[in-house]
Amino acid sequence: MNIDQVLLITALAAYITGTIVFIGYFLSRNPVMRTIGIPLAAIGCVAQFGELGARWIISGIWPLTNLYGSLSLFSAMGVLIFIAFALKYNLWFTGGFVLLIAAIALGYATTWNEGYMPAVPALQSYWIKVHVPLVISSYASFMVAFVVGALYLVKYSFEKYFGRKQTVAAAMTSAGAVNVPVSEYNADVGISDVRVTGLRNDTPNIAAAAARGDFWGMWLETLPSLAKLDILAYRIIAVGLPLLTIGIITGAWWAKEAWGAYWQWDPKETAALLSWIVYASYMHLHTRNVWRGYRCAWINVIGFATIIFCYLGVNIWISGLHSYKV
Amino acid sequence: MATHAAAPARSLYDEFLALFSNVLFAVSLFAVWGVLTLIGVVVDQGKDAAAYWNEYPAPVARLILRLHLDNIYHSPAYVGIIGLILVSLAVCTFKRVIPARLPPLRTVKIDAIPLNASIDVHGEEGAVRARIADFFASRGWQVRKREFGGEEWMFADRHNWARRGVLVAHIGFVIIAMGTTIYWWKGFQGTTAILTGQTITVPETGARIRLERFGYRFDPVQTKSGLVYQPIDYVSNVTVTGKDGVARQATIRVNDPLDVDGTLYYQATYGYGISFSLTKDGVPVPNAPNGPLKEGAGFQVADTPRAIQYTRFIGTIDRATGQPGADPRPNNPAVVLSAFDGDQPLGDILVPLGKSIDLGGGYKLTPAHYTLYSGLQYRYDPGVPLVGIGAFVLLSGLCIAFYLLPARLYVRITGTGRDWHVGLAATTVKGYDIFEEQFHDLVTALVSGPLGECRLHTNAEGPDSAGAPRSGGRAGWAGAP
Ligand code: HEM
Fold first, then answer.
1. What CATH number is attached to the domain comprising B451?
2. Fewer CB atoms inside 10 A, N or C side of chain B?
C-alpha cells in the first residue's frame, strides 16, 4: 500500500470516529467527548493534507486537477476552517456534522480516483495553484456556515414547536425577545425599528422544555442562542464570500490567459456567479433587522445548495470548459 | 394649474428614488439576476435551434427559443437586470451610503441600549474619567467629550471610516461594469483556423499569421478504468507580421497566448484538414472540393443533388476490428463522412484515408491525406485593466465592510465625592449581537485593568472569575445570559 493510501484510510477513519464522538458530544455535552473529538478532527485533516502532498511528491503532478483531488481538499479545508472557527468562537458543537460531511465528501472523492493523471494543457498553469485552493476554501467555509445555519433552523423550529405544544407563561416572564428603542447609531444608517433578540435567552420555549427535562429541549438549550448562531453563520460567510470573490477573480484572470476571455459564460463560472449572487444577497439582507436570523438562515441553506450545484452538479452533469471529466 | 401638475411628477420621482434606494428592491433584482443565471447554466447556450428540438420536449424547446433562453446572457432581460442593479446602486450610493454620517454626539438612555454595563467606582473623579478615556484611547478608540446640561459625556468611536467599506465595494462593482462596457464599445474577438503552411490575415487588425507547424502531445496513461490518452501539450509555431510590417517567429500554447499589437492570440482548438479527390469514371473532377476541408465542412458532388460532409477525423482504426480505437493520434487514420441527398441525410460512413467510396453515377471519392490545422481565438479587450482594478476595489470593500466593525461607545459618569457610577453602552452599524462578545471583553478589561486600580466597591461579581475586578467591584451586566 502506498503512503498516500495509508493516509487516506487514516483520514477517513479519523473522520468517521470523530463524527460519532462529536455527535455524542453534541447530544451529551460531555467535555471528554470533545477532548477526544478535537484530535481526531486534527489527525484527519493533517492526514488529508499529507495525502495530497504525498500524491504530489510521488507523481510530480499537482493533485488538484481532478474531482478526486478537489473533493479531498474540500473535505480537508472544511475541517480546517471548522477547527479555526471552533478555536475562536467555540464552534465544537458543529463538529459531528462537519466531520460527517467531510467523511462523505472524502468517501465520494475516492470513487473519482483514477490514479495519477497528468494535467491537460488548460490546467497546466500556476493559476491552478491559486485559483482552485481559493475556490475550494470558499466552498468549505460555506459548508461550515451551512451547518451553523441548519442548526439555527432546527433550534428555531423546535422553539416554535414547543411554543405550540405548551404554555410557557412562567418562562416568558423571565426571558425572551426584547424590544428596544432605536439606538442613535442605527437610526442614522436607516434602521427605524430595532427588535433585538439574542442578548438574553431568545428561545424561552426550549428553556421551559429543558427545565421540564425534555430530552430535545435539554440539548437544544445547550446550543448557543439563535442570535449567536446567526452571528456565527454571518462571520463564516464573511470569510467565504471574499474567498469566493478572489476565487472568481483569479479564475477570470486564468481564463484570460488560457482561453482568451476573462469571462466566457462557461457553466462553471456562471454557477459560481450564481452562488456569489446568493451570498451577496445574504450580506445585504443581513443588514436588515427583520431578515437577520430566520430568513437569513434559509438564504444560507439555499446558498450552500447552489454551491453543491456549482461544485458537483455542474462538474458531473453539465460539461463545459471547466469539467474535469475530460 | 402649474403647481397641480408639478406635484404628482415630483412624487413619482420620489417614489423612484425610494424604490431604487431600497435594499430589499436591490435584493429582489439580485434574485431575478440569480434565476436568469441559473437558467443559463442549465440550458445549453448558443446552440442551433435544431439542438434544442432534439434535446428537449417540444414545448420546452419552443419556450427556450421564444424567450431567447438559448442566448440568455446577451438577452435584453439579462443586460437590463444588470442595468437596473447599477441604477439602484447609483441611487443607493447617493441616497443612503454617502449621506450615512457619524451619528451626532448626543445623550442616550444607557440602560435602554441592549449592550450596556454599569460599574460603580470609588476614587477621584478626575482620575476615573482620565483612566477611562486613556483606556479607550489606548485601544484605538477615538474619544471625545461633550457637556450636556452640566454633565460630561464621553463618546468613543472605532473604525468609523470603515463604514465607507460599503461605498468602496459598490464602486468596485461599478468599475467592473465600466470595464466590461469598454469591451462592448471598443473590443472585439474572433476565431480563425489556419492550415499548416497557410497564411491568414486577421480582418480586424490586418495582422498576418502563417502556421509553420502545429504539434501536440498525448501520453498514454493507465487509469483504473483503462488506458487513456491524456493530452499534454498543444503548440502552434507561427510567423506573425504586425503593424510594423516585420515578420517574427513565435509560438502559441494553451495558457501562453501571443500578443500582437495589443491583440492576444490563444491556442483554442486544432484539427485535421482533409484533401479529397473526386473522380468521375476515373477522371479527376477539378476543384471538388477546393482545397482541404476542415471538420464540419462539406461540398456538393459536382452536378448531382448529393452532398458530402466531412464530419469527424478518427486517429486510429483498430486493424483487427476495423473500429475506431482510443488513440487520437493519426496511426491508421480514417474519416467519418455524412452523405446527403438534398436535405435528406443518407447516413454516415467510416472511410480510411487513401480508400475510395463509390458515390454512384460514376463518382468516386477518396480522402487522400490530412493537413493539421490550428484553431486560434483572438481578442482585443481594452477594458481588462479597469476590470482588474474594479475587482481589487470590490474585494477591498468587502474586506473592510466585513472585518472592521464601526462601533460607538457612550460613557456617562455620575456620582459625587469619591463614589462614581459609570454607565457604558455600545451601538454598532450591524446591530448588537455581533458586538456582544467584544463588549464583554472590553468591559472585563476595563474593570480588571484601569478601573480595578480605582478600588471598586466590594461584593461584586465580574463577568467571569478570570476577569473579576481585583479588589472586588460592582459591575452590573446587561446583555450577558
Ligand atoms: C452587485 C453589487 C453589490 C455589491 C458587491 C455590494 C456589496 C455590499 C457589501 C459588501 C455591503 C456590506 C454588507 C455588510 O457589511 O454586511 C453592502 C451593503 C449595502 N449595500 Fe450593497 N452591494 C451591491 C449592490 C447593491 C445595490 C444594487 C444596492 C442598492 C440599493 C446596495 C445597497 C446597499 C446598502 C444600502 C448597504 C448598507 C446596508 C446597511 O448597512 O444598512 N448594494 N453592499
1. 3.30.310
2. N
- Closest to A114 (Cβ–Cβ): which among B225, B256, B268? B225
Tell me the CA–centroid distance for residue B398 and ligand 1, in Å: 10
Kindly state if the Cβ of B169 falls inside 6 Å of ligand 1: yes
**Which domain, by its residues, includes A64?**
1-118
Bridging pattern class, strands B142-148 and B151-158: antiparallel
The residue ranges of DSSP E strands in chain A, in sequence order, are 178-179, 195-196
| Sheet with strand B226-241: strands edge to edge | B199-201, B208-223, B226-241, B247-253
Average pLDDT of chain B is 84
User: What are the distances in angstroms from CA B211 to CA A258, B380, B471?
Assistant: 20, 21, 86
Residue B41: name the closest of A292, A81, A266, A126 by CA: A266
Q: Give the pLDDT score at B98.
A: 80
Q: Which amino acid, one-letter code, is at B49? A: A
Interchain pair A118, B387: CB under 8 A: no
B181 lies in a domain?
A: no
Q: Is residue B468 scored above 60 in pLDDT?
A: no
Task: State whether A179 and A93 are in the same domain.
Answer: no
Report yes or no on A306 lying in a domain: no
Number of domains in chain B: 3
Overall number of domains in chain A: 2
Query: What's the predicted TM-score (pTM) here?
Result: 0.82
Looking at the domain assignment, is residue A275 inside a domain?
Answer: no
Nearest Cβ partner for B402 among A178, A230, A238: A238
Interface TM-score (ipTM) > 0.90:
no
| Residue A58: CATH number of its domain | 1.20.120
Q: Do B472 and B413 fall within a single domain?
A: yes
Same domain, B127 and B90: no
Domain extent for B152: 102-159+405-478
Q: How far apart are alpha carbons B233 and B253 in whole angstroms? A: 8
Per-residue pLDDT, averaged over A116-145, amounts to 86
Whether residues A22 and A112 share a domain: the answer is yes
Q: Is residue A48 part of a domain?
A: yes
The string over B231-251, giving b where at least 16 C-beta atoms fall within 10 Å of a residue's C-beta and e elsewhere, is beebbbbbebbbeeeeeeeee
What is the number of alpha carbons within 13 Å of residue B411 lying toward its C-beta? 27
pLDDT of A193 over the 50 cut:
no
B399–A242 CB contact, under 8 Å: yes
Q: Which of A168-172, A269-273, B123-127, B462-466 has the highest mean pLDDT?
A: A269-273
Lowest mean pLDDT among A98-107, A167-176, B263-272, B288-297: A167-176
Query: Taking a contact as any Cβ pair under 8 Å apart, which residues of chain B between 269 and 298 contact chain A?
Result: none
Kindly report, residue by residue over B385-417, the tens digit of the pLDDT.
999 999 999 999 999 999 999 999 999 988 887
How confident is the model over B243-258, as pLDDT tens digits? 999 999 999 988 889 9
3-state secondary structure of B340: strand
Rounded to the nearest angstrom, the minimum Cα separation between A20 and chain B is: 30
Mutation choice for ligand 1 from B19, B30, B81, B89, CB with most ligand atoms inside 8 A: B89
pLDDT at A188: 28
Q: Residue B9 — very low, low, confident or very high, per pLDDT cuts 50/70/90?
A: low
Domain boundary (A220, A255, A272) is at: A220
